[in-house]
Amino acid sequence: MRKMIWIVAVLMIAVCAAPGFAQVKAGSFNITPNAGIYVFEGNEDMKNAPTLGVRAGYFFTKYFGAEIYGQWIPTQVGENVYENGFLIDKNESLNVVNYGVEAVVNLLPDGFGGTGLVPFVAAGVAGMHYSRHYEDTTENKENKIAATYGAGLKYFLSDNWALRTDVRHVIPFADVHNNLLATVGLTFAFGGAKKEEPVAEPAPAPAPAPVAPQPRKIEEPATPGDLEFGTVHFAFDRSDINPDQIPVLNSNGDILTRWKTITVRIEGHADERGSDEYNLALGQRRADTVKRYLVNYGIDESRITTVSYGESRPVDTGSNEAAWYKNRRAEFVITAK
Questions:
Q1: More exposed terminus of the chain, fewer Cβ within 10 Å: N or C?
Q2: Residue 221: is its pLDDT beyond 60?
Q3: Does residue 153 sit in the same domain as residue 83?
Q4: What is the β-pairing status of strands 263-269 and 64-76?
């Protein structure tokens, strides 16, 4: 037990001293072989023992996931136990298997304070299987239902590898017991969405050559109160205008041409992939590109302001391509009529 505590302490010191890369991704799988210690409650008459196991999971979002696990615990039955109504002296080996399924919640999936440290909590249902059954030790049962809850910490060494520690309170039922499971493991993570964050942020690209605006006649609303501006969407990690968005921009330009007293604010947005700082800058570039197009269209620059909200105001909170496309946008907000 003391040796295991020292091992965990050394690993945690190493974790805190080195830089890391938090890479919890929606849609990712992970596998974690582990080793540790299992502590039985004293009245179970089983000796604390080392344990080997494995965990496998899937994250539906970067916050929420589910895992299955199994732990082998080679222990020994203590002395003076009841068997078939007789008190006898025992000191026999006993193999215990703890297995279950847990829900996992990553509290800081992007890392604590910009490091690779990702704390999480977990809870679930489990089973206990005993290779032998005794009256005092297992209540004459070879299988029991159990509940688990606890917490852990992942430290990402790279995009796919992480050190991991787990602590669980394991509660086998029949007679209720309070056991402790503590493990250290190495996680391999794979799959999931790529982050919208380049390895090195390039200098802003020169403004694309403006597309020659082509004013057209449209059916105008009777009053400014009936106006409705279209939303402009962008490609992944881009701020230039897609050709299929030109009709939307022309329509918005026609409205501003017709109603010369209207002023607007163009709000730039990004999807969830990438850091907050990068997405704020990307949203600003998108808003500025739309403003530049409208100025070239003939709209007075003083009638247009811009702002970026980065990834903070998604219209769709999903973690898939359809949601990300909706969130990569520039919206028009009327500020004066």
A1: N
A2: no
A3: yes
A4: unpaired
